[in-house]
Specification:
The protein has about 150 residues and is an all-beta fold. About 5% of the residues lie in helices and about 50% in strands. The protein contains 1 helix and 12 strands; from the N terminus they run E-H-E-E-E-E-E-E-E-E-E-E-E. It has a 5-stranded antiparallel beta sheet with strand order 1-4-3-2-5. Strands 7, 8, 9 and 12 form a 4-stranded antiparallel beta sheet that branches. It has a 3-stranded antiparallel beta sheet with strand order 6-11-10, with no helix packed on it. It starts with a strand and ends in a 20-residue tail after the last strand. The relative contact order is 0.18.
Length: about 150
């Protein structure tokens, strides 16, 4: 089977890593067999790298073309500070998030760690109670006055 790996996860994926594949209520063990050397764009325009997963013991319950969920255990971190992928941005100086301090947007450089499908670990640059902008668009700029609204 083939999966698309984001740029955030690419450095953590290696040929030979164990994978768990869930298809139609059945779970199979597998491993990373091949990682392409050329990125492509997904439907959202993000760069992804196709990666092949070999299912070790396929059976008659596997159907071609059916969506599957693949879990590759790359690393583990306990007590991590996580933020949504959409909150982390990059520029020539590295990764950063926009935070809200005293009603003003400030750019905070961060170091990132491991990630999941939706979140990324922040290893340096933020504290647990910092308020950040979870989604950023081109109208957001450092120094803007904003009112923080907690996510539900």
């Amino acid at each position: 089977m083939s999966i698309s790996v984001s740029k955030y996860d690419l450095e953590k994926i290696k040929v030979g890593q164990k994978a768990e594949v869930a298809i139609g209520g059945f779970t199979y063990e597998g491993e990373v067999e091949k990682i392409d050397k050329m990125a492509t764009k997904n439907n959202s325009g993000a760069a992804v790298v196709n990666t092949d997963i070999r299912i070790n013991n396929p059976d008659e319950n596997i159907f071609l073309g059916v969506e599957a969920k693949v879990t590759i255990s790359t690393s583990k971190s306990e007590g991590a500070l996580l933020v949504p992928y959409s909150a982390v941005n990059s520029d020539m100086e590295g990764n950063f998030v926009y935070a809200v301090e005293n009603g003003t947007v400030v750019k905070k450089p961060v170091q990132t760690g491991i990630s999941s499908d939706t979140d990324i670990e922040i290893t340096e640059g933020l504290s647990e109670n910092d308020q950040i902008l979870a989604e950023v668009n081109s109208s957001i700029a450092e120094g803007m006055q904003v009112t923080a609204v907690p996510q539900q």
